[in-house]
Design goal:
Blueprint: H1 2-33, E1 37-44, E2 47-58, E3 63-64, E4 71-72, H2 77-90, H3 116-120, E5 130-131, E6 134-135, H4 141-149, H5 166-179, H6 183-192, E7 201-202, E8 216-217, E9 233-234, H7 244-247, E10 249-251, H8 253-264, H9 271-277, E11 297-299, E12 305-310, E13 314-319, E14 324-330, E15 332-333, H10 341-349, H11 356-371
Parallel strand pairs: 8-15
Antiparallel strand pairs: 1-2, 1-14, 2-3, 4-10, 5-6, 7-10, 8-9, 11-12, 12-13, 13-14
């Protein structure tokens, strides 16, 4: 009986060590980078094995960050949009290889050959609806749309990768058109509900959202002297509803981890659709682009690594071949958690626990030994 229990004890000791290493690393990085507040969650073999919050959600009022604090995903929202598009494709409501004009009849003539997959992977060649100052032209959403549709293509569809938000404005419209409901409701019913994401919503830093973390930056202000020391300041960002598909989700590390579990367990997409969504989109010359269907591909093979990265402050990385996923959400612009997430993932890749079917078989063997003949 003692011998049969040893594999589980070894797994538990390895897990505890990985969790302790993660805690130490997180505390060190928060001090080093002056990150006010942070959430981390780790998924291993379909289980959330660590979920913790550190620091302050709001510095000036001393509000502690908790596991219930909502952080913005910003552009990591695009991964959810990718899942939504893949779900509609599975349902026969959307052909990802079709031109967007099949579903949207008001596109400029020069945009009509852009395929849905090219929108997801930023290979459309479309002009961006945002510039350095926000919405194009500095006006309303409608004015920005008028301005961007008057611009020529920046490249032939499929010719090159160029990240822009116009792609996801169009995807939100396509998803709403083909699902018969607003974009945010389709995500709520098709993903948030299935993954039990009770703390997930949409908005930006101007919206009054309960338990939302305050955003900060250490970047110099425009009025600062060139030699002024860095100081923590508020960071405001505007995310109107038309841009939600590209960056509108506020959530928790817990909720994001539950979503990743649901995704990798096949509750949101079948395995074949999931793998296709995570396959880098090919450019016209045959080269693999840096993005798949809503997901940056950090590494294609070996050891596939796909991610959601947003606002230089939130990220999650999935390592399907390791059975590991890591979520880190912060309230500091410039924290760039995608840069240190690989160090966390490495802690959990060592002495990895066996796959689920092997664990089930091992448990049955143990029960048989304990029960005796």
């Amino acid at each position: 009986m003692l011998i049969s229990a040893m594999p589980f004890a070894a797994i538990s000791a390895s897990q505890d060590q990985a969790n302790d290493q993660t805690r130490r690393l997180i505390r060190h990085i928060m001090l080093e980078q002056r990150i006010p507040g942070l959430q981390v969650a780790v998924v291993k073999q379909g289980q959330i094995v660590l979920s913790e919050a550190y620091g302050l959600a709001n510095v000036e009022n001393g509000v502690l960050a908790s596991r219930d604090t909502r952080f913005p995903l910003n552009s990591a929202t695009k991964a959810f949009t990718g899942v939504a598009a893949a779900q509609l494709a599975q349902q026969g409501q959307l052909d990802l290889d079709a031109p967007a004009s099949r579903y949207l009849d008001d596109l400029p003539a020069t945009w009509r050959e852009v395929r849905v997959r090219q929108l997801l992977a930023h290979t459309s060649g479309l002009p961006d609806i945002l510039d350095a100052n926000g919405l194009l032209g500095g006006g309303s959403e409608a004015q920005a749309w008028t301005a961007v549709t008057a611009r020529p293509l920046e490249a032939a569809p499929g010719q090159r990768f160029a990240y822009n938000q116009t792609n996801y404005v169009l995807l939100a419209r396509i998803i709403a058109q083909q699902s018969g409901m607003p974009y945010e409701r389709f995500l709520a019913t098709g993903q948030f509900s299935s993954a039990h994401m009770a703390r997930t919503t949409f908005g930006d830093s101007y919206d009054l959202i309960p338990d939302a973390a305050t955003m900060y930056s250490l970047a110099p202000r425009a009025t600062d002297a060139a030699d002024a020391p860095s100081r923590l300041s508020h960071w405001f960002y505007d995310m109107p509803p038309s841009l939600w598909a590209g960056g509108g989700i506020l959530t928790t590390a817990d909720d994001t981890a539950r979503w990743l579990v649901a995704l990798t367990e096949g509750r949101l997409l079948p395995e074949t659709a999931l793998r296709r969504m995570w396959s880098a989109e090919r450019l016209a010359d045959g080269r693999a682009g840096p993005w798949a269907g809503g997901w940056p591909v950090l590494r294609a093979s070996p050891d596939l690594q796909v991610a959601g990265i947003g606002g230089a402050r939130s990220a999650f990385v999935v390592y399907p071949e390791r059975g590991v996923a890591v979520v880190v959400l912060t309230n500091l612009v410039g924290a760039n958690p995608q840069q240190f997430i690989p160090r966390i993932a490495d802690f959990y890749a060592r002495d990895a626990s066996p796959p689920a079917h092997e664990r089930v078989a091992l448990a049955r063997q143990q029960r048989a030994v304990i029960a005796g003949p």
